Amino acid sequence: MDADVIIIGAGLAGLQAARRLQDSGLSVIVLEASDAVGGRVRTDRVDGFLLDRGFQLLNPAYPAVREWIDIEALRLQHFGVGALIRNGESLTRLAHPLRHPQYLPEALRSGYLQPREVFALLKWLAPTLIRETASSRAQQDMTLASSLDSAGVTGPLRTSVIDTFLSGVLADASGTTSANFVRLLLRSFAFGVPGLPEQGMQALPELMAAELVHKPQTQIRVTSVAETTVGVEVGTDTGFLRAQMAIVAAGPPEAAELTETAEPKMNGLSTWWFATDHSPLKEKFLVLDASGPAGKAAGPVVHAAVVSEVAPSYAPAGKHLVEATTLLSATGNNPDEASVRRDLERMYATSVNDWELIARHELPHTLPAQPPPLNQHRSQRINDRVFIAGDHLDTASINGALLSGDRAARSVVEALSHRN
Ligand SMILES: Cc1cc2nc3c(=O)[nH]c(=O)nc-3n(C[C@H](O)[C@H](O)[C@H](O)COP(=O)(O)OP(=O)(O)OC[C@H]3O[C@@H](n4cnc5c(N)ncnc54)[C@H](O)[C@@H]3O)c2cc1C
């Protein structure tokens, strides 16, 4: 045997599984097809800019992050908890009233907070705010859109803020996501202040990998995983490896292919990264557009942010970095650069002609769709020797990937303890 356990994929799920197995005294080989660890959490350095492969945030309030990640080591640079809403000439700060009480009068004057709708939203969210496990009552789950409709969250807060904000977070604007999953996400926004690590999002998986005695082997693509009479045989593009057990943590589509299970539906988005000499707005909030008909976004950008105002380490001295996020459509009819620039011009009320598009990340496999009912305890066992892990088996998030990796590893430890 080459090791007790072989893990396929060095994304967050695979790395957490490896850490848990190592802590349990097992020998582990991690095989990664790409040139570095991280999976969907990667960062490129381009001309002094840090460009995450798709704008994303780390929320320190995620239970798995709180429990297993040395968050201090990442030196998070924090966003404001809230958003700026652009509607024509006006730009309104809608922020967490306890974290940013100074903006409350502005929010109350804005017209976005109608007492009846705010009360309905709080009532909808309250059980999950009080107790995290309230959202695991799967039988009460339904789609986000029907759940908010039936709760009476149907006013300007919904159309101009919640729907647009969530479409960026979920990479989906259809409203078909599990309402219970969204409650969990909003809970983590209520209790945490999301941010970006000083060295980019990839610092998170690198921190996890640094704890492994045997570092993940990169640029090795696994092509098959087969149960044998004595263990598993893992085929790679450089030969075969053998172990007692395997965990396939290769991301939803690849894991499905390797384990011959159903491929989950994935939602996609694009992040457009622009460099500019002047910051268009000295604010640490995402900007949402509500200038369109009925207070919806007028164009394709679901949110934008001056990332370098939040995370100065993301831009070289004297430069600024702006992200704009658009959704990828299943029909392939996606926005072009001109329409993104038009949106940014309106959202920041400035000319963007001299902004340089330095990268565009088109990510069709951003997040697995998470339809109701929310089920965080899906089986991760493929057969007696092979387990599967990833965000598609828990919640579509960093938290879900970590939890799923940990659960797969604990199942392996238990299965091995029965055998030995
Ligand atoms: C643009 C974007 C924005 C996001 N925003 C957020 C956010 O703000 N908050 C949040 O919580 N989550 C966010 N996410 C989701 C989060 O990044 C994922 O949920 C999480 O990283 C998934 O981890 P994973 O280990 O399950 O899968 P992956 O990260 O997909 O890891 C799978 C790994 O397996 C490797 N692999 C695949 N096939 C093979 C093979 N055959 N052999 C060997 N290795 C293989 C891959 O290269 C990869 O490294 C975002 C994701 C993206 C892309």
TrEMBL record:
The keyword Membrane does not apply. It comes from the Bacteria. GO terms for molecular function: oxidoreductase activity. Pfam families: Amino_oxidase. Gene3D superfamilies: FAD/NAD(P)-binding domain. Its cofactor is FAD. Residues 12-412 form the Amine oxidase domain. FAD binds at residues 32-33, 222. Keywords: Oxidoreductase. This is Monoamine oxidase. It comes from Corynebacterium alimapuense. The lineage of its organism: Bacteria, Bacillati, Actinomycetota, Actinomycetes, Mycobacteriales.
